[in-house]
Amino acid sequence: MTKTLAVIAIFALFAGNASPAFAQESEGAQAEKAQAKTRTLETIVVTAGRVEEKAKNVTQSVTVISRAEIEKNQQSDLGTLLRNQGMQVRAYAPGGSSSQLLIRGMRTSLMGDDSQGTILILVNGRRAGTDNVSMIPLVNVDRVEVLRGPAAVQYGSSAIGGVVNIITRRGDKLHAAAEAGLSSWGGVRTLGELSGSGYGFDASGGISWVTQNDSYRTGRGNDLHTYHNTDMNYNLAQNLNLGYTFLEEHRIGVNYQSVKQDNVGSPGDINGLTPDDRMDRQNYSVDFTYEGGYKDAGLTWMGRYFTGEYKYDIRQSYLDYFGGYPVSARAKDKNEYRGAQGQLTFSNKFLSLTGGVDWLKSDRSQFNRTVGPFTSTSLHNDNIIQTDLGLFALAKLTLFDNLLIISGGLRHDVYESEYEGSSKHYYRTTPSVGLAVNPLDWLTLRSNYAESFSVPHTLAVTGYSDAYSTYLGNKNLKPEKAKSWDIGAEIHHQSLHLGLSYFMTNYKDKIISETISSWPSVVSQYVNLPGISKFRGIELDASYDVGELFDLPFAVKPYVNLTHLFKYDDPDGEKVMFVSATNMTYGINFNHPDWGLDVDLRFNYMGRQKITETKWPSPTNGQPKYFGGDTTADLYVSKVIHKWDDYGTLSVKGEIRNIFDHDYAAIDYYPMPGRSFYIGLRYDY
Questions:
Q1: For residue 458, what is the enclosing H or E element?
Q2: Residue range 80-89: average pLDDT?
Q3: pTM above 0.85?
Q4: What is the mean pLDDT of residues 363-369?
Q5: Please, what is the Cα angle at 216 between 211 and 219, to 5 degrees?
Q6: Is the pLDDT of residue 369 over 60?
Q7: Hey, which end of the chain has fewer CB within 10 Å, N or C?
Q8: Is 80 strand, coil or helix?
Q9: Cβ contacts of residue 321 below 8 Å, gap of 6+?
Q10: Cα 204 to Cα 174: distance, rounded to the nearest angstrom
Q11: Beta strand 119-123 pairing with 162-168
C-alpha cells in the first residue's frame, strides 16, 4: 500500500500543467536562464589555488557541484552525492560501515583514517578529520568542489588522486528552508536551514535528521530478500557558520560541524550475516577563522585554528568458526585532531602570489576486546601521534588579457610519527606547474604536471594488533609517491557544456600488508610494493540544453559524467584490485520554471572490477574474479504547489530509486537496496 501511495503521489506532480507547452517565455524564466549562464561562465572556485579565482583560469580539472544540485536530491552524505556525479563509491550499505571514494584509480581509506588514503577530503579548505565519505554531511553546504588529480603542493600528504572540498554556506540575504518526508522501510527525513545577515553579522545554519526503522529489501533476483540488520536509530548532521565583518575587509568567524550516527546496523556479508552487530560513529569539528585584507595594496590574508574528533564504536556477537561457541567483541577507535593554517596573498591584474603554512596534529587511540568461553583478549593502542608542518608557495601569471595563465607551486613538509617513545621523521618537497589558455570566450585549454605523496601512517610504522590479526610495523617504510600529467579542454558555448581531460599517473612505493603467517593467528608485515603502478584514462562531463537551443520556455538537458581508465596496472602488469575501469552517470533533466517542475531521470553505471573472492570455501579456488557491471536508474521529481509573493514557496518532492528493482552491490556479497520510494514537502523562503 505504501508503494502504491508513493507512486500515485509522484505521478500526481505532473497534474495541473495544461498550459500550452510553447507559450511565450516569462520574464522570470528569461532572467533565470541569463543568471545561470553567467554563473556557468564566471564560476568561482577556491580549492585549486587556496584563493578565490574564476574556474576558467584554473590549470587543473575541477568539478563544482552546486547548492541547487545538492538540494534537488537531499542526499544525506557525500558518498551518495559523488556517486551521482559518475564517481566510483564502494559502500557496504547505505548508512552502514565505511564508504570509499575512488578518483583516477586512487581511493580513500577503508576505515576513515585520511592518513592512510590517497584522496583528501576537506571542509572549507582544511582536513575534514576523516576520509570516510559516509561521515561527511551535506547540511548547510554551499557547494562541493572536486579537484581531480594531485594537490600535494596545496595540501600536503594524501592528495594523490584528488581533493574534495566541502564549502559551507555563509549568511547573506534572509533564507529559510524546511523539508520533511517519508521513505521506504520506515524511513524519515527532516531538514531545516536558516541564514541571514545584518549590522556586520552573518549567520547560516542547518540541521538534518534521518532514520530508518526497518531493514531494507534487496533487488529482484536476490534470494536474500530482506537484508537484516540494515536499520539505524538515526543520522544527525549539524552545521553553524557565524561571522562578523568589520572595517569592510575583515571578518572573524566560527564554523561548527557535526555528524552522529547512532546504533547503526552492521550486517556482514550475505554468506555470514551478523544480525546483532551495531556501531556508533561521530565526527565533529570547530573552526575559528580571521580573514582580512588591504585591497588598495592587493593584499589578502587568512588565519585559522581548528579542532575536532572522529570516533567509532563497534559491538559484535558471533559464533566461533571452529568450536561454534558464542564470542563477543568490541572495537573502538578515536582520532583527536587539531591544526592551524595561515596564508598571505598578493594579487594584481597580472600576478598572484600566495604563501603560507599548515600545521596538523592527530592523536589516535584504539581499543579491542574479544571475550569467549575459553579465551579473553584486550588490546590497547594509545597516543599514536602524527604531526605535519608544511610550507607552501603558489604563483599565477596572467598574460594578454586573460589569454594565457601560467601557474606553479612548491611545498615542503616535515612529518613526524610517534608511538611509545619512538619516532620517525619524513621530509618531502613537491612541485607543480600548469598552463591554461582561453583563445575564445567559450573555450579553455588546460595542462598540468604535479608530484604528490602519502606518508606512511603511524600504525604501519609501529605495528599493532586487533582481535583477529597482528600487523608488524616497518620503520624503513618510504612515502608513497606519484607523478601525474593531464591535458584537457572545456567548452561553454550556447546550449553546450563539454569538459574532456586525459590523465596519466605513475604511482610507486605503495604501502601494503603482506601475510607472512596464517596459523595459529594471522600475522602480516607492512612493506613498500616494488615497481610502478600505471593509471591512464579520460574524464568526460557533458550536457546540452535542447530547450535553449530551440528557444523553448523550459529546459530539456541530457547529460553524462564519465571516467574511463584505459590502464590501471600494478607493477606486475595485472589490473589493480577493486578499481572499476568505467564509471558513468547519464540521464536527462526537464525543468519548467513557469510550472515550478523539475524532473531528473538518472542512470548510474559501475563498471566491472577485479576483486578477491571472500566466500569460503572459494568457488574460484582463491583466485581473483571480476565483479560489477551494473546499471541502476533513479527518478527525482520536484513540483512547486504554491508560491506566495512575500512568503516563499511550498513544493512536493518525490523519488524512486533503483526504479527497475535491480539486484546490485558496490562491494561483493553486500547487496544494495531494491526499489525504494520517498515523498516529502519542502518550504523555501
A1: helix 458-462
A2: 88
A3: yes
A4: 84
A5: 140
A6: yes
A7: N
A8: helix
A9: none
A10: 9
A11: parallel
For the stretch 86-100, pLDDT in tens is 899 988 877 656 788
- Look at residue 383 in the predicted model and tell me its pLDDT: 78
pLDDT of 541 reads: 95
Which of 160-164, 264-268, 367-371 ranks highest by mean pLDDT?
A: 160-164
d(C-alpha 479, C-alpha 455), whole Å = 4
Q: Are strands 469-472 and 522-528 parallel, antiparallel or unpaired?
A: parallel
| Pick from 306, 419, 315, 421: nearest CA to 365 | 419
Q: Which residues contact 142 (CB under 8 A, 6 or more apart)?
A: 67, 167, 168, 169, 170
* Domains of the chain with bracketed CATH: 2-684 (2.40.170.20)
Whether omega for the bond prior to residue 520 falls within 30 degrees of 0, making it cis, is yes
Q: Average of pLDDT values for 483-488?
A: 96
DSSP letters for 485-501: EEEEEEEEETTEEEEEE
What amino acid occupies position 317? Answer: S
Contacts of 283 (CB under 8 A, 6+ apart): 128, 129, 130, 135, 136, 258, 259, 308, 309, 310, 311
Instruction: Cell numbers for 191, please give them.
Output: 531538514
Least reliable range by pLDDT among 38-52, 223-237, 407-421: 38-52
**DSSP designation for 466:** -
| Cβ atoms of residues 123 and 140 within 8 Å | no
- Identify the sign of the CA torsion 612, 617, 621, 626: negative
Q: Is the dihedral of CA 515, 516, 518, 521 positive or negative?
A: negative
Nearest to 297 by CA among 252, 245, 344: 344
- The answer to whether the beta carbons of residues 313 and 279 sit under 8 Å apart is yes
pLDDT tens, 199-249? 999 999 999 999 999 999 999 887 788 898 899 999 999 999 999 999 988
- Whole-angstrom distance, CA of residue 49 vs CA of residue 239: 25
Which carries the bigger pLDDT value, residue 35 or residue 219?
219
User: Is the per-residue pLDDT at 165 higher than 90?
Assistant: yes
User: Buried b / exposed e across 292-305, counting CB within 10 Å, b at 16+?
Assistant: ebeeeeeebbbbbb
Q: Percent of the chain scored above 90 by pLDDT?
A: 63
Q: Which residue has the cell 604528490?
A: 452
- Rounded mean pLDDT of the chain? 87
CA distances from 568 to 30, 460, 482, 578 (A): 46, 25, 14, 11
Q: Using CA atoms, how far apart are residues 183 and 223, in angstroms rounded to an integer?
A: 23
pLDDT of 12: 38
Alpha-carbon gap, residue 212 to 186, rounded angstroms: 5
CB 471 within 8 A of CB 526: yes
Sorted by sequence, the CB contacts under 8 Å of residue 49 that are 6+ apart come out as 58, 154, 352, 354, 394, 396, 407
